[in-house]
Amino acid sequence: MITIKDIAAKANVSSSTVSRVLNDDLTLKVTEETRHRILEISKELGYTTVRNRRNVQNLANLNNPRIGIFLAHTLEEEIDGVDDPYFTSIRQGVESECLNRGVFTNKVFRLSENNQKQIVGDLDGLIIIGGISLNAINQLCGHLDNIVFINHSQEEDKYDSVVVDFEKATKNALEHMFSLGYTRIGYIGGKEREQDSGKNLIIEDKRQTTFETMMKSKEIYHEDHVLIGEYTMAQGYELMKKLIKKGNLPQAFFIGSDSMSIGAMRALRESNLRVPEDVAIVSFNDVQMAKFASTPLTTVKVHTEQMGRFGVQLLLDRINGREIPLKVTVPTRLVIRESCGVNSR
């Protein structure tokens, strides 16, 4: 079966670009030549035929619902965070599942855009990716009840959500580090945010708070070994440089994202420190580049694309009549590679 990846390979663009073009995402900045090439290749490869077949199979049940995708982050933040594809992968899962199920009328919105009336007026359901406050939701969506949150949850007795158990995942990662004999463990992470009508509110990051709680319970927590910035490769690099300059580095680090970990490893390498011989690292997300890092990363695998697919499934089920809200917690898995030092202990 022809997939979005097949079209992307032939068009020499990313899968995300293909998906957004096929979904008429007006926020996508792409030349008309590229847009035309993607559409022509999709026809040439027979992608429309597959889509139509799925459409026939599903329209009777789905009644061709109009679904919107709402992104908590701005276009600029998406571009700036290109090295951390966490939310992009969730979005790709949403778009792929919409295409597979014959739902082609989904629209893409961002909090910064003045489109409140449009959201309320012509959608049957909305998938929200990222953190948005109830206040902002009420202003944007009004009477719209068919809403699914992904990677965030709000008013769980009313709305569906798809989340990750960050607390359990962090505990598993730390228990693995303890089992390897590490006691002096540092933490590098970013800020979790909730958008509220133009305001950017910092909210609890369970990775950080769970790390602090576990380390304090064992009386091995050191505040100087915890640094927080943004979830980018550059910030991982800068924060690790700062810790190296301080001296007395921990034996190991739990780092909140793979992109930050790769930046941190660059800083260690520039200081002639080896991973894992001098400093071990356990990371979070398991994006594709994690296994291709200079030292392949031990990392918590988050099934981001599947989170997006679950979001679509929940929303369509809700549109088709389910009244009880559901919260789906997607399991994670610790992927053991070289960076934690498991093979040297």
From TrEMBL:
<dbReference type="GO" id="GO:0003677">
    <property type="term" value="F:DNA binding"/>
</dbReference>
<feature type="domain" description="HTH lacI-type">
    <location>
        <begin position="2"/>
        <end position="58"/>
    </location>
</feature>
<keyword id="KW-0804">Transcription</keyword>
<keyword id="KW-0805">Transcription regulation</keyword>
<keyword id="KW-0238">DNA-binding</keyword>
<dbReference type="InterPro" id="IPR010982">
    <property type="entry name" value="Lambda_DNA-bd_dom_sf"/>
</dbReference>
<dbReference type="InterPro" id="IPR000843">
    <property type="entry name" value="HTH_LacI"/>
</dbReference>
<dbReference type="InterPro" id="IPR028082">
    <property type="entry name" value="Peripla_BP_I"/>
</dbReference>
<dbReference type="Pfam" id="PF00356">
    <property type="entry name" value="LacI"/>
</dbReference>
<protein>
    <submittedName>
        <fullName>LacI family DNA-binding transcriptional regulator</fullName>
    </submittedName>
</protein>
<dbReference type="Pfam" id="PF13377">
    <property type="entry name" value="Peripla_BP_3"/>
</dbReference>
<dbReference type="InterPro" id="IPR046335">
    <property type="entry name" value="LacI/GalR-like_sensor"/>
</dbReference>
